[in-house]
């Protein structure tokens, strides 16, 4: 399979977070394809694990119709120039009021590669401690902090309907089952 | 945490596949929130497994900049009224030329719950057999069929950058490790 070159974008709408329009690509054989495209700044997700629990959140996800989506802590790359790891460290404090001394990158993936360039950086955060001042939700954020026992991970996976969080929790299940974490 | 009511949508652009705009929601305390929103018809993904391999594909994902994304077979719910399971059965034939006698729903999730209503239905397909006529790619689709040995799943997970496929492959890893599949 051969590569393609981007040959142009026709921006149709710029929202607060996303930009939508049509992008065109040319293949070496001359074929031109056009795709609906959503540009997104990218996001981070954090799998924060201590000896007995993984730190989850519940929050409304209005556009998906969920009143209390069970998720890992996460956030958008909405500070210009901020590297993903730094964003993850900031979000862990803001959303659940924790610092972590140990960070490693677990995975990087595209949420919906067919129409969006949103990439998610997923981190494992360990050696947790309470941050001074606790959680600092942004104005209007309605985030509940949910410490979840790691011996009941299957129940979290059954309830969870958020892609990045499922990836993190399934990864954790596999590692715990193998005894490699 | 209390629920919210949708109170209106302002469509800004209608593409071939997606629709983009702003949606508003009202909380019981009177607070109004507006969100960038991408409406999407939804999609299916298929984890097709036989005794020794899982059936994967490689295909370009232009908007995400990937020339050969390693994925499970998948497709959009782009036939009006077609139920997700029927779409999955059709896509398995079209993309990899296989029928399955055994189907079960593994999971349902939102790709990017913060800005899109795209829901993915994930199925486990077993008891596979070759479909008459083989794979039937749509015009212009460039899909390579990749049978992947299940004893080398970790390598597929390392390479894969597609959310729905990671969920399926991590689920399979956990089941195989536990000996429950």
Describe this entry's structure for a reader.
The structure is a homodimer of 181-residue chains. Chain A is an alpha+beta fold and 181 residues long. Chain A contains 3 helices and 10 strands; from the N terminus they run βββββββαβββαα. Chain A folds into 2 domains: 35 residues, no CATH class; 136 residues, Nucleoside Triphosphate Pyrophosphohydrolase (Alpha-Beta Complex), CATH 3.90.79.10. Helix content of chain A is 20%, strand content 45%. In chain A, the strands form 3 sheets. The first copy, chain A, has a 4-stranded mixed β-sheet, with helices on both faces. In chain A, strands 1-2-3 form a 3-stranded antiparallel β-sheet, with no helix packed on it. Chain A has a 3-stranded antiparallel β-sheet with strand order 6-5-10. In chain A, helix 2 packs antiparallel against helix 3. At the A-B interface, strand 1, strand 2, strand 3, strand 5 and strand 6 of A face strand 1, strand 2, strand 3, strand 5 and strand 6 of B.
Assess the beta-strand content of chain A as a share of residues: 35-45%
Please tell me what the overall shape of chain A is. globular
Could you state the CATH homologous superfamily of the largest domain in chain A?
Answer: Nucleoside Triphosphate Pyrophosphohydrolase
Helix-strand string of chain A: EEEEEEEHEEEHH
Residue runs with pLDDT of under 50 for 5 or more positions of chain A: none
What is the CATH top level name of the largest domain in chain A? Alpha Beta
Specify the biggest β-sheet of chain A: 4 strands, mixed
For the record, give the distance between the C-alpha atoms at the N and C termini of chain A, rounded to a whole number. Answer: 38 Å
- Topology-level CATH name of the largest domain in chain A: Nucleoside Triphosphate Pyrophosphohydrolase
Helix content of chain A: 10-25%
Oligomer state of the chains in this structure: homodimer
> Which whole number gives the mean pLDDT of chain A?
95
* Helix-strand category of chain A: alpha+beta
Radius of gyration of chain A: 18 Å
């Amino acid at each position: 399979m051969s590569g393609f070159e981007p040959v142009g974008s026709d921006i149709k709408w710029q929202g607060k977070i996303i930009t939508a329009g049509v992008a065109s690509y040319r293949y070496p054989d001359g074929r031109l394809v056009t795709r609906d495209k959503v540009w997104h700044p990218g996001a981070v997700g954090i799998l924060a694990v201590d000896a007995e629990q993984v730190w989850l959140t519940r929050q409304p996800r209005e556009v998906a119709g969920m009143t209390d989506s069970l998720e890992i802590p996460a956030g958008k790359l909405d500070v210009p120039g901020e590297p993903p790891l730094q964003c993850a460290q900031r979000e862990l404090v803001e959303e659940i009021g924790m610092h972590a001394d140990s960070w490693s990158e677990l995975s990087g993936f595209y949420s919906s590669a067919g129409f969006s360039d949103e990439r998610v950086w997923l981190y494992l955060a360990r050696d947790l401690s309470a941050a001074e001042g606790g959680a600092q939700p942004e104005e209007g954020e309605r985030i509940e902090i949910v410490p979840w026992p790691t011996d009941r991970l299957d129940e979290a996976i059954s309830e969870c309907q958020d892609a990045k969080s499922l990836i993190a929790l399934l990864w954790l299940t596999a590692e715990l089952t193998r005894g490699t974490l």
